[in-house]
Request: fold
Amino acid sequence: MSPTTSNRSAGPAHGHVTFLGAGPGDPGLLTLRAVEALSSADVLVAEPDVVDVIRAHARPGVTVIDTAAPGLTSADTSSTSVGAPVLRDAANLVMESARGGKRVVRAVSGDPGLDTYAAGEMLACAAGGVPFEVVPGIATAVGVPAYAGVPLRDAQGTDVRFVDARTAPDRCWTEAGASDGTVVVSATLETVAAAAGELVAAGRKPDTPMTVTVGGTTTRQRTWSATLGTVAQTLKQAKVLPSPEGGRPVIAVVGERSSAAQRDQLSWFESKPLFGWRVLVPRTKEQAASLSDQLRSYGAVPHEVPTIAVEPPRTPQQMERAVKGLVTGRYEWIAFTSVNAVKAVREKFEEYGLDARAFAGIKVAAVGEQTAQALVSFGVKPDLVPSGEQSAAGLLEDWPPYDPVFDPIDRVFLPRADIATETLVAGLIDLGWEVDDVTAYRTVRASPPPAETREAIKGGGFDAVLFTSSSTVRNLVGIAGKPHNVTVIACIGPATAKTAEEHGLRVDVMAPEPSVLTLAAALAEFGAGRRAAALEAGDVVTRPSERRPGSRRRRTTS
Reply:
């Protein structure tokens, strides 16, 4: 009999607690086991800096408890650092939920084994008979240097010591100062210079190299190279100010292996072509999923703003007849040119109690990777996807002409938007096919985004905007205003670029082929070129938004 079974049979029903390490900040650093635990949790208990990392993997309806909610006291207020939020008594919160039969995830930044309070909370669970498990995470003191391009150990087996400047006793500084190995210091912007002074006082040379990283493993990351003796002046010259709340955490690495020259070669994260760029993607989250993922791989921070909304057709009878025709054998082909078309047909299928089996005997065509993937998710594998350009023209290049010998039916079902062009219809007719061109959905202009987003668009708060069609240009300008002239404008093709120029926008990037993923790659190439030019000129690498009037003052207070 397992301990869990024994506990539940011997007394009142208890839930289960998972102490989970959420890593240093990058959501991609969660382990597979952590994602699994989050997907089955009833309650999440976490500090505010962890909530956004784990929330995406939680199931709908999960209860999220922020341990820094105002008005609640700490389990140990004597150990709360000055300027930090007062923590709720997490142990009581965890026990209360678990005793109610809930599956609780207690998430901490970094690794639970290095968390100040986790061990005490585990002991509380053990004393209360609540079963628990531990899911390790990447420790902040290890993950941040890796993202900063600062190796902690070399082939000679460098000694590595970890010191928390906020709680370290004097003997830790003495031992670290006497060592000639690498020292990793967890501190804050307010205390990192004092920590450097402690190491010098304990015997380290003032010219010992040192790196300081803030916002580690996130797109807010920034690293400075200095020495123990110059770190205070380096941060002052960079005009790096503490946050108004105080206690802004940093990871400092001290030692010969953390020299600036070596970091320049190994800084893989901060040297990404679009690192830290805020990129406006005028599409819904569903449409922008793969595009946003690709932008993140280049170091960008995508911000989706839908410019169109999809609504059912005003007269649904035509769509209803066409879907029934699929079942009765009216069509030889059905062609999908968008994810929205797939969604519209799928909704009609579900309304009539149909599923993917209704496509049996019908050839299916799809334009674009996302459209094809939407069909696969529906259980339908497309028979035809353009081998070249992912567009109506590209589909026509590969579409076979009607042959009465091999094609028993000469009709094509084309579910589309109400504003779609006639290119595909005309091309299919030229190939000898009859086409039922059916309005499957209507596109209307979306509601304006929040005021903060509108101000960022007009005021230069975004570094780039990706326009994937002429309608996205017209609609974005219509609902939010014209992007600031410092914003890099990237367009998917000549027609979209022409529309942007007609609206007074300077087009900086155009995709070599009409694909959203190629467009993102073209923007990344542009960003890499800007970075290389700045480095060659000896300038500081900046984002486009940092060049707008007044941006420098705002940037240096962050």
Q: What stands out?
A: The chain is about 35% helix and 20% strand. Residues 1-12, 71-88, 552-558 have pLDDT under 50 and may be disordered. The chain has four domains: 3-138, 142-266, 278-307+447-556, 311-445.
